[in-house]
Design goal:
The chain starts with 9 loop residues before the first helix and ends with a helix. It has a 6-stranded mixed sheet with strand order 5-4-1-3-2-6, with helices on both faces. The chain is α+β, with helices and mostly antiparallel strands. Helix 4 (59-90) packs antiparallel against helix 9 (262-275) and helix 6 packs across helix 7. The longest helix is centred in the N-terminal third of the chain and has 32 residues, at 59-90. Helix content is 43%, strand content 12%.
Amino acid sequence: MIGNQQPQTLLNRNSVEKNKIPFDFLDYLYTEQKASRVGHQRGRLREKERCEINVGMTVGQEEWLKKSVAEKEDAATYLCDKYKALLAEHKKVTLLPFAFYLPDDWIQKNEEPRTKIFSHNALKISLEELQRRFDVMIKKLKQQSKYDPACAYSRLILIDENFKPFYLVNFFFSVDDLNAHFAEDIWHEWLATSSSSNKENEQAVFYAFDDEHKPDRNDVRGLVFHVPEGGINSLYDAQGNDALKILFTNDEYNSPEPLKATRKRHEQFFRLQAQKYNTIPGSRAKVFSDNFTYSSSGKRKKAETQK
């Protein structure tokens, strides 16, 4: 949870005022549980989200937790409603989701060396860099006629447990026969926005709903493939270790069986995204745009005269 209205605990005051480190309320709750020997301590990545919160909270803390849960539910509804509207308009929608990360050298430069955590300032400048790169990429994609089948995109800002941000972007196409070229091209357009001197430091995840959408791995070095049912895990946790990145996101054997209906699979994945979502003061953490389709100047002039 990211915010200025945090529970006034000693941990919170120390972290914000002295170290200028953002406050993770769930970490605080699980630490309290461990200290009181009640319930489960925060465990491995896949177990901790299933642990029951079994520790006393103040009224203010309870209200803050309820607010965060409500924001996640609102994000899930937001994504599903936008998707339903696209289906009503286009009948067929193909989804190409990506998680875009900042490169390893950027992370190493801005994280606290001992804890690997981002300060408020590191989070701020990283959000600015993600926005800069994303805006450049979207502008470039819109200028290409081959993206005529694209009909919309949604973008969430997600933040991992060390307060390192990344973008979760859903690209929507109004056709059901896309090939692997689009995923490959989107990855290379993202690479083109990098200010890193070494492109091998770049990283992203492509959540493939269909194997036909996956490019050849040799053509997209740095891009990791992941099954949507496996959930969303931060690549920053596998920083600098390519083998670990693949193992960390390869959950084909541990993931739930995919639903048969494409629409249900998409909506299920939107809910998984929303579980990771938190509002961020001063940032638009959730964005949707259906102004994505390529439009030549001739098409634009014709559309303007018809209004």
